[in-house]
Amino acid sequence: MPIYHSQGRIPRKRHVVVRPGERFIYEELVGNKGFTGPSSLMYHLNRPAAVLGRRLMTKLQWEAEEEQGLAMRHLFSKRLPVGGGVVAGRVPLLFNHDVAISICRPDHADEFFYRNGQGDELVYVADGGGVLESQFGRLEVGPGDYVVIPRGVLHRWRLDQSKGQAHLLVVESASWIRTPERYRSELGQLLEHSPFCERDIRLPQGLETRDEEGEFPLVVKQGNTLTEFILQYHPFDVEGWDGHYYPWAFNIHDFEPIVGRIHQPPPVHQTFAADGFVVCSFVPRLYDFHPEAVPAPYHHANVMTDEVLYYASNEFMSRKGIESGSITLHPDGLTHGPHPGRAEASVGQPSTDELAVMIDTFRPLKVARQAAQIEDQDYTRSWL
Fold first, then answer.
1. Of all residues in the chain, what percent are helix, strand and coil, respectively (each to 5)?
2. Domain span at residue 289?
3. To the nearest 10°, the Cα dihedral for 253, 259, 262, 267?
4. Is the distance from CB of 359 to CB of 171 less than 8 angstroms?
5. Residue 107 included in any domain
6. pTM over 0.90
7. Which of 221, 293, 284, 238 is nearest to 264 (CA)?
8. Sorting pLDDT into bands at 50, 70 and 90, what band is 1?
């Protein structure tokens, strides 16, 4: 879990008057699992619940394609058109009750603030960069960054077009996204065998307090519906906060791979955990060093798991025909493995330069109808 952090001015004790005899400061608790999960306390100059009005914007359409039966799938996500903002511009591709996976290729910044009220978000920045602004401060983001935005955190993306066209892999989770339990001590510290540590995690900095009255649009997602609220006060009126609940970032290149004499199974690559899925990072690393090792993965059937891979480069040890931005789905019930010739070619090789994000779900995924426009129709036959 994220470590304790604070920014700005906070009182010595919780739930006390911040400025006796002066301006009243409003306290707000944000967190998950009611009052029993991780949380942070924010201190506002104005009432955070002051709403001037509201309107229903849209019902998001996560529609599954027409039933096609079980199949391997390969999608070219960078062939999706550029357009929209970071919120409304998301194109749904894969989903179930635990997770929703979409791609965003925005061509402009959203002018409204945003809060996902139905799930945590994990955004992988494949290309582009900019700043994630929130009530907790600023996070500079760039290629290779995982950005974790807990449920209910009010924020706004400010992507820098001078850094190239942004390409975002968005993973929305119905449960809390966190570090794997086996990497943590009973007190939450990342242990020595973890492939990353607290030093690798970037926290919000540069809290800028805005004391402004006006009309400030906030879009909230709940029940797959977007509703716009007009706030009376600028939501970045926080003069201080502390706690364990805030957006944070971790770059995939700071993941230190675990290698061995023979092939290591995918769980050694795990980076994040949730109740219904896990996220793993495949990064450049030395190959297995047993003199007769076969570094490419063996064939496997993913029993009780659907496997999704987002390829962040053109190279992957066991695949051919993929490109940067490719997404493959290997569902439960079908055996898959290295493409022909890839296992043989891996023998004796010293290392791999691959870069990919894997999402393994514990319940079957549905394929959204939008996937049809970017699908490789010959993927099922690519093992021949």
1. 10, 40, 50
2. 252-381
3. -70
4. yes
5. yes
6. yes
7. 293
8. low
